Amino acid sequence: MSEAVGPARDPGLQPERTRLAWRRTTLASTVAAVLAAKAALHGGVSVAGIVAGALCCGLWLAFLLLAHRRIVALSGQGVPAALTPRHATAAVLCAVATAVCAAALVVV
Amino acid sequence: MIEFVRNVRLWFAPEQVREEGRTPDYRFSLANERTFLAWLRTALALIGGGFAVDQFLPDLRWGWRVGLALALLAAGVLCSLRAVNHWMRCERAMRRGEDLPASRFPALLGVLVAVVALAMAVVVLVGWEG
């Protein structure tokens, strides 16, 4: 198995570790999305709650897509491309927007 | 503050970052990316904590519950914005061959989390119910 890996393999397994870090982060965002869904459906169904909950689920899907694209980029052979600022900013904006939806759910 | 605004502009203009200095060893960039992701997870955990305070402490008075939840959510927003800002600053420092930027944010976040935890302990022990 290990002999099948190409010559460019990094002994520190940096791309693999970075990939796993992205997976851990998607797991954290999944927990936040599940809590958002619970908050949206808690204590009776309201239009504002449903809209905010749906937004949180959409943001979760957007984050999954971003993470998936980065994981694919890290899985290729050779030296992986660096993370672009746009990619990082998009991931952060997903988290910020989730927090804004959460604030709306908490206050309403 | 002006430095922060300039950094925000750089988030959306990756070409400008590319032009500066020399490309560092890709392993350093990946390590920086993992640090960024660790901070992003911290931010997501704080946001999840905000949801959890609102959901799992229903007996608290409204003001306390909403105040604690909003404090955690605000900390999550700050933490995630700081994550991308610090990642950008580290990336630029590595490109220019400068020292990595120092930050007092971890200490501030630690103090804030400690204060919120103490407030939670007091609220739960004393039992100010709504």
UniProtKB/TrEMBL annotation, chain B:
It holds the Pfam family DUF202. Its main location: membrane. InterPro entries: DUF202 (IPR003807), IM_YidH-like (IPR052053). It is found in: Cell membrane. The chain crosses the membrane at residues 36-56, 62-84, 105-128. It is a multi-pass membrane protein. It comes from the Bacteria. Residues 27-93 form the DUF202 domain. This is Membrane protein. The lineage of its organism: Bacteria, Bacillati, Actinomycetota, Actinomycetes, Kitasatosporales.
